[in-house]
UniProtKB/TrEMBL annotation:
Belongs to the RAD52 family. Pfam families: Rad52_Rad22 (PF04098). One of its GO terms (biological process) is DNA repair. Keywords: DNA damage, DNA repair. This is Recombinase. It comes from Mesorhizobium wenxiniae. InterPro entries: Rad52_fam (IPR041247).
């Protein structure tokens, strides 16, 4: 089989691209939209261009990072390129493996064009918690039409799944414990897959941080007052 490496660099269909929130404004009303692809689409691209028998990957570990090497058989010799990633908060091992795999694939040109894609500031869906803090739920549904146009698409699976995603965000916000968040994610895994599940994992990880922070604040021991110092004027 002749392997045409330039084909690895070809753009994906717009419906295969997902978006996550990067940096946000101080009031969290706006955020930077960052495009990414699912690891399954990377695998399919390697299968289509190289053939399943002509590529492989492994995961050597380096310090706290998970490193992935992707090898492609060229002229009867294996050529390797590698990159790494740290653990994520939910399904840490699986998340690190997926991220490292996709980063190694970029070195072969897969999805590399996404790094040159505009990352526009978009309106965010937010909610104010009982503690008065503003929390990001995700990118506002109406923004996906604009984001999809950046990819040259005319329709978007993001929009088709918008209502389901909004329902998930409401359920996630209702979770007040780590156990509840992990239970919600476990249920999602039964019906969701691919980039939608990855995006949900990121949202669950952020919500988990918020819940843990709130629990820590609620259980913090107040400073013990010294009645003697109060009596003498706080000296």
């Amino acid at each position: 089989m002749t392997i045409h490496l330039p084909k690895l660099k070809e753009p994906f269909e717009p419906d295969r691209i997902s978006w996550r929130v990067g940096s946000t404004t101080k009031d969290k009303s706006k955020g930077m939209a960052l495009a990414y692809i699912d690891a399954r689409d990377v695998m399919q691209r390697l299968d289509d261009v190289c053939g399943p028998e002509n590529w492989q990957c492994d995961y050597p570990h380096a310090a706290a990072k998970t490193v992935c090497r992707i090898g492609i058989k060229l002229n009867d010799e294996w050529v390797w390129k590698s990159n790494g990633a740290g653990d994520t908060d939910i399904e840490s091992e699986k998340g690190a493996l997926s991220d490292a795999f996709k980063r190694a694939a970029v070195l072969w040109g897969i999805g590399q064009y996404l790094y040159d894609l505009e990352s526009p500031w978009v309106t965010l869906d937010t909610q104010t918690g009982n503690d008065g803090k503003v929390y990001v739920k995700g990118i506002a549904k109406h923004e996906f039409t604009r984001l999809h146009k950046l990819l040259g698409g005319k329709s978007s699976s993001q929009l088709a799944k918008g209502d389901e995603w909004a329902a998930f965000q409401n359920d996630l916000w209702a979770c007040k414990s780590v156990v509840a968040i992990e239970g919600l994610y476990k249920e999602l895994r039964k019906t969701w897959s691919g980039s939608w599940l990855e995006q949900a994992a990121e949202a669950c990880a952020e919500r988990k941080k918020d819940v843990l922070a709130a629990e820590a604040e609620a259980t913090a021991t107040p400073p013990v007052k010294n009645k003697y110092l109060e009596a003498v004027g706080g000296m």
